[in-house]
Every structure is written in structure tokens, then in C-alpha cells.
Design a protein that fits this description.
Strand content: 15-25%
Distance between the termini: 53 Å
Shape: globular
Strand order of the largest sheet: 6-5-4-10-9-8-7
Largest sheet: 7 strands, antiparallel
Helix content: 40-55%
Structural class: alpha+beta
Number of helices: 16
Number of strands: 20
Radius of gyration: 30 Å
């Protein structure tokens, strides 16, 4: 097989041009890296981890059927990995990427270079040690990736990237994205890509702050609690390794023993105190334990943010935004600016206190295939900018869309219908009045002692509902310009979504029977990837006449 370097034409400054056969395709069919089999098998084991856990519990409790089932599952998984490694082949022509795989059911796939949107790569700690990377090639369809190459050498990733760039440039084919995942994957050739301009870098201390302000630690705590809870129900002690008869009484006994141990410590501390002092110290101890639990969960969240987003850097190169981050697993993702449908800015009440925000985006095809998202896809959509200071927001938004209007004085924010608050209040107030009436009835029942509590709770409920509904109706606003539409909502978690009229597929005017009764309507904007930004462009409770006027104007503009 003739190498690409040997056939390079000296007059081409960017990328070596390989020799083409009569059909115009490259004589360069290649397979995966030799270590691909190892990483493929490990990925299969990871995917079948839950059956492995059940098989382990079956073995330690004396069962053997679970072991056979586990062996069968892993056997088929490993066999599939071997077949895929031996049969996977790919080659690059002057206009497309050809991929062949499969033994019994042979698959031939052709990916035009003009359709390639993303070449994302992931490098965990083992990938970096062996100088390889997992590569995913995606098109604008937004469904399953066109190809997942697990794994390629760093040199091969460079070669594939440079060949696609070189061929696309010489053929005038627009390529939306080519990117690799770590400093080790820097281009070996020069001037094939213009230098990237740094837009944002997130320091470690800000990631720690973002983690302390979030609740990601609850996920880790829930996993740990679920493991120990399930272990107790299975009769398996995760500390001693002993196996007992699985009963619910074992779990109750373990919980009871934990509570009694805390009580004994508390009693020893308050033994010499008076009764009043004991009550005060008991309350303080409970408050202290709650604060300690919250602190531990926040520390878990901070660790999660540092591990996932360490070294975060957002750069702009031509029309592509590139993200690189990760402590143990290096993630690289690219979002072409022309694929961005909606930009969503999130600000929790704690983030507003510290002057912080986060950005998520919806991209073309982003609403499909979410179950198959990998780390790079998730980074490019769900965690586009995990945290940034408000002083940096304007710069990042203009890098995403140069003509964006975010806090422009030209924008005129419009509120919902004047009847929106009354509509939001109707159901909570009806419930509050119903409970208040029930408290009056309680005076003539044996439960008269609870009547005052019920009446007080009803009054508090109605007052709180009045405050919430007033705030909610005032927080929902929208604004339009010649090129975009903005929608803002939220009390504790404020969100602002920015949609672009030239990328919205359609606009709908919706009126339910309740809308007609209140003389209201809903505007719904259909984007090509609605979903990941968690803030769809749906504006409810608009005045019917105003909504109709906006619908006609925006429908004409779109």
C-alpha cells in the first residue's frame, strides 16, 4: 500500500494530495488501531455493568443461573467486539468517507464530506497513555453518529483531519468541523487551519464555586445510598463481605442502629446539661448535622465540576466554536455557528448573587437521538459554557453570533396578557379557599384542635400563591427584533432564550379552550433541534389580538 506522504505533490502547501485511481477514490483503506479491541471490549463490559452486578449478587447468595447469564452476555459482547474490530474498514475519497463493517450483515456507508459537521474526539486517561483517541463523525441529521471509530492513533486522527481539510479546500467543499481532543493532537501540518482565537477560559476556582452553587452532589450521594440500600436488601454487607438472609428487618435494624449510635454520642455530650440546655443543644446539633450534610454534598458537586470541566477553553476558528475540557477524560467538541438554533442563558438565584451565568445551546438536529449522546455531544449542547462571569457574557455571545442583541436598548420587552396573573391564581386560590372552609368545618368535628393549624396553613398558602403567581407573570417577557426573538422567564432559575428568525422552521398560533375563554393565545416556534437547552421557544398567555399580530408579522419574516 502506497503511503500518502510518498505521493504528496510538492506544490501543494497545505495537505499532501494522494494519488487517485480512475474512479477518483483513494487507494487507502484502513482499519482501527491495534488497541481498538481492548477499548471495545472494555466499553462492552462497561455497557453491561448492571448484568454483571446482578450476576455477582447471584453468586454471593448461592445462585448459579445468574452467573451463566452473565457469562453469556459478556461472551456475546466480546464476540461482537472482535467481529467489529476485524471487519471495520474506512477510506477517504476526494468527495466522501467510505465505511465498511459487519460480517454476516455487511454495511457499506458513504458520508459526503459536505455533510460532515462534527469530528469530535474523546481521550480518557488510558487513551492518553497509549496515544489514541475515540473519534465520532457526525452529520447535520442529529441522529446516531455516522461513524464511531474506537480507537484511532493520534497520528491517524491528524491525518484524517488534514486530509478532509485538504480535499475540502481543493474541491471547495465546506467542512463544518474538524477537531481533536488534547494538546497531543495538535495539527502536524501548518496553515491548513487558521489560528484559533481564544474566547473564554474557566479557571479552577470558578469551577469550584460553580460546584458549590449546584446540587450535582445529590447524584453521587443518591448512587452511594442506593448501593448500600440494595446491598442490605440482598443480605450482603458491603464492608465485611458477609451474606445473610435478605429481609427488610435487616435494613430497619441497620437504620435503627445508626440512629441509636448518634443518640448515644448526643447523650454523652448533654449528660451534664439542664433540660433547657439540652433542648437548645439538640436543636443546634440537628442544624449542625444538616449544614455538614449540605457541605459534603456541595463538595461532591465541586469535585464533579472540576473533573468534568478542568482546563475548559472555548475558541473560535473560522465559523466553528471549539470546546476542550476534562481532567481525566479529555473531551473535544465543536459547534458550527451556523448550526446554532437557540441560545439559552441560565442564572439561578445563587448565580445571580455571585454575578455568574451559564449558556446552553440547541443545534440543528439536537432534539433527536439524545439517548445516544456521548460526552462530546453532551458538552456541545447541554454544557456549552458551564459557568462564566456576567462581564464575559457579552463577549461569548458575540463570538457565538456576531449580530446578536442581548441587552440592547433597541429591544422593547413586552409582558404577558394583563389577565395572566389572575389566570395563574385561580387554581391555587380555589384550593386555599377550600382548605380554609374545611378548617371552619373542623370546629364541629372531633378534629377541632387542628382547625387553627389548617386555617393558618390555608392563609399562608394563599399569600404565597399570590406572591409566586405575581412574580411568575411579571418574569415572563419577550422581545423581537428584525433578526431574532427573545423569551425570558423564571423566578429562582431565570432563563433567557434567544432564537434567530432565519433559523426557525415555523411559527404556530395555538388557542386552547381555556385560552379562548381568557382571550389569550400561545406562540410556539419550531426549531430544528428543540430540546437540549431546556427552554423551548413557547410563549404562553399572550393577549389574543397581540399574539395574532405577532404571528402574522413573524410568519412573514420567517
Amino acid at each position: 500500500m502506497q503511503s500518502l506522504q510518498d505521493t504528496a505533490e510538492p506544490e501543494t502547501p497545505r495537505a499532501p494530495q494522494p494519488k487517485l485511481n480512475e474512479s477518483g477514490s483513494l487507494k487507502d483503506q484502513r482499519g482501527l488501531h491495534a488497541l481498538s479491541l481492548v477499548f471495545e471490549v472494555s466499553n462492552r463490559i462497561h455497557a453491561n455493568l448492571i448484568p454483571a452486578i446482578f450476576a455477582s449478587f447471584s453468586v454471593v447468595t448461592g445462585g448459579i443461573i445468574g452467573l451463566y447469564i452473565g457469562i453469556a452476555i459478556f461472551g456475546f459482547a466480546i464476540a461482537f467486539s472482535i467481529i467489529r474490530f476485524l471487519t471495520f474498514r474506512y477510506r477517504l475519497t476526494d468527495s466522501e468517507l467510505l465505511i465498511d463493517q459487519g460480517l454476516i450483515f455487511r454495511t457499506h456507508r458513504s458520508v459526503p464530506l459536505s455533510n460532515i459537521q462534527n469530528i469530535d474526539s474523546i481521550q480518557n486517561i488510558f487513551h492518553r497513555f497509549f496515544q489514541v483517541a475515540e473519534v465520532r463523525i457526525e452529520t447535520a441529521s442529529g441522529n446516531e453518529p455516522e461513524a464511531t471509530m474506537r480507537v484511532l492513533s493520534i497520528a491517524e486522527v491528524d491525518r484524517l483531519r488534514d486530509r478532509i481539510l485538504g480535499i475540502a479546500t481543493s474541491s471547495k467543499i465546506p467542512v463544518a468541523n474538524v477537531e481533536t481532543s488534547s494538546e497531543a493532537t495538535a495539527p502536524s501540518t501548518t496553515s491548513s487551519i487558521e489560528s484559533a482565537r481564544s474566547i473564554l477560559e474557566i479557571p479552577t476556582h470558578r469551577l469550584i464555586l460553580a460546584g458549590l452553587l449546584s446540587n450535582r452532589g445529590l447524584i453521587l450521594a443518591g448512587i452511594a445510598f442506593g448501593y448500600f440500600w440494595q446491598a442490605q436488601f440482598s443480605g450482603f454487607d458491603p464492608f465485611s463481605g458477609k451474606v445473610e438472609e435478605p429481609t427488610k428487618e435487616n435494613v430497619r435494624g441497620a437504620i435503627r442502629g445508626t440512629i441509636l449510635s448518634f443518640k448515644s454520642v448526643f447523650d454523652s455530650i448533654t449528660e451534664s446539661m439542664t433540660g433547657q440546655a439540652k433542648s437548645v443543644s439538640g436543636i443546634l446539633l440537628i442544624v449542625l448535622m444538616v449544614l455538614l450534610l449540605v457541605l459534603v454534598l456541595r463538595l461532591f458537586s465541586a469535585a464533579w465540576y472540576v473533573i468534568k470541566f478542568h482546563g475548559y477553553r472555548l475558541t473560535l476558528r473560522d465559523e466553528e466554536l471549539h470546546i476542550r475540557c476534562g481532567l481525566f477524560t479529555k473531551i473535544s467538541a465543536t459547534v458550527p455557528r451556523q448550526r446554532i438554533q437557540v441560545i439559552s442563558i441560565h442564572r439561578s438565584w445563587l448565580a445571580r448573587f455571585f454575578g455568574l451565568a451559564s449558556i446552553r445551546v440547541e443545534t440543528t438536529g439536537g432534539g433527536t437521538g439524545q439517548q445516544s449522546e456521548n460526552a462530546a455531544t453532551s458538552m456541545g449542547r447541554h454544557w456549552f459554557v458551564p459557568i462564566l462571569a456576567m462581564s464575559e457574557l457579552e463577549q461569548v455571545l458575540h463570538a457565538m453570533q456576531p449580530n446578536i442583541e442581548w441587552e440592547s436598548s433597541k429591544l422593547s420587552w413586552k409582558a404577558l396578557s394583563p389577565r395572566a396573573r389572575k389566570r395563574l391564581l385561580r387554581l391555587p386560590m380555589f384550593l386555599g379557599i377550600a382548605f380554609l372552609f374545611a378548617s371552619l368545618v373542623q370546629f364541629f368535628t372531633p378534629f377541632r384542635n387542628w382547625a387553627g393549624i389548617t386555617a393558618g396553613a390555608s392563609i399562608v398558602w394563599m399569600a404565597l400563591s399570590l406572591w409566586v403567581c405575581t412574580k411568575k407573570s411579571k418574569s415572563r417577557k419577550y422581545a423581537t427584533s428584525e433578526t431574532q426573538i427573545l423569551f425570558r422567564s423564571g423566578i429562582l432559575m431565570q432563563k433567557t432564550s434567544i432564537g434567530f428568525l432565519d433559523r426557525i422552521q415555523s411559527v404556530g398560533l395555538i388557542q386552547s379552550p381555556f385560552d379562548r375563554n381568557w382571550k389569550m393565545a400561545t406562540l410556539k416556534f419550531d426549531t430544528a433541534g428543540a430540546g437540549p437547552a431546556e427552554h423551548l421557544l413557547v410563549i404562553e398567555m399572550l393577549d389574543a389580538d397581540e399574539a395574532t399580530s405577532e404571528f402574522e408579522r413573524l410568519n412573514y419574516a420567517i
